[in-house]
Amino acid sequence: xxGVSQNPRHKITKxxxxxxxxxxxxxxxxxxxxxxxxxxxxxxxxxYFQNEAQLEKSRLLSDRFSAERPKGSFSxxxxxxxxxxDSAMYLCASSLTQGVTEAFFGQGTRLTVV
Amino acid sequence: xxxxxQPPSMDCAExxxxxxxxxxxxxxxxxxxxxxxxIHSQGPQYIIHGLKNNETNEMASLIITEDRKxxxxxxxxxxxRDTAVYYCIAHNNNDMRFGAGTRLTVKP
Lengths: 114, 108
Prior knowledge:
The complex is a heterodimer of chains A (about 110) and B (about 110).
Chain A: E1 5-7, E2 10-13, E3 19-24, E4 31-37, E5 44-50, E6 53-57, E7 65-68, E8 75-79, E9 88-95, E10 104-105, E11 109-113
Parallel strand pairs in A: 2-11
Antiparallel strand pairs in A: 1-3, 3-8, 4-5, 4-9, 5-6, 7-8, 9-10, 9-11
Chain B: E1 9-13, E2 18-23, E3 32-38, E4 45-50, E5 55-56, E6 61-64, E7 70-75, E8 84-91, E9 102-107
Parallel strand pairs in B: 1-9
Antiparallel strand pairs in B: 2-7, 3-4, 3-8, 5-6, 6-7, 8-9
C-alpha cells in the first residue's frame, strides 16, 4: 500500500497522559499536513511541513501539542497532558509541492481521552 | 486561504445530477478551487480542482464563474455511494483549511 499511513488507528488514554501519533506520507511527497476533526465538523488545520521544516502552526496547536518531521519523511504528533477536549480524529495528509497537486489523506487516528 | 461558504446540507435523487455550490468571493488571483469529499469514518478524498476554466474528470465537473467568486461541483449521475460531506477549499498550495462542507445525501 503506497498511501498515507497513520498509526495507531485508535488510541484510548487517561486524562493527563501523553500520546504520540505517527504519519507516514507517500514516499516522494515533501509536504505533510496535520488536522484535527471532531464529530460533525470539518477538519481543522493544525500544522504543515515542507520537508523537515514546520512552516505554519495554527493557534489550535497549544503548548501541549508538538509535531516533528525530523528527516523530512514520517512525522509525529505528540499531545502532552491530554484533556478530554483533545478527543478527536487526527488526520494526516501529504502532497507534492511542485505544481498544483492534490493532498492524499490517511485514515486518521481516533483519540479518546477518558 | 480565502474563506468559502457552502450550504450545510443537500439531498439528491439517485441517478440525477448533484450540483453543489460554493461561494468564495474573496478568492485571490493565485488561489485554486479544490473539492474534496469525506465519507463517514474515512479521510477526505480529492475530487477535482481548477483555477478559472471549467474542469472535468472521471468523478465530477467543476464550473467556476467568470469572476471566480463562486463555483459548482457537479456529480452527473449521483449514486448512493456519493453520500458524503463535500468540502470546497480555495488555496494557493500553502496551508489548506477546510470549512464545514455540505452534507450530500443521495436518496433511492
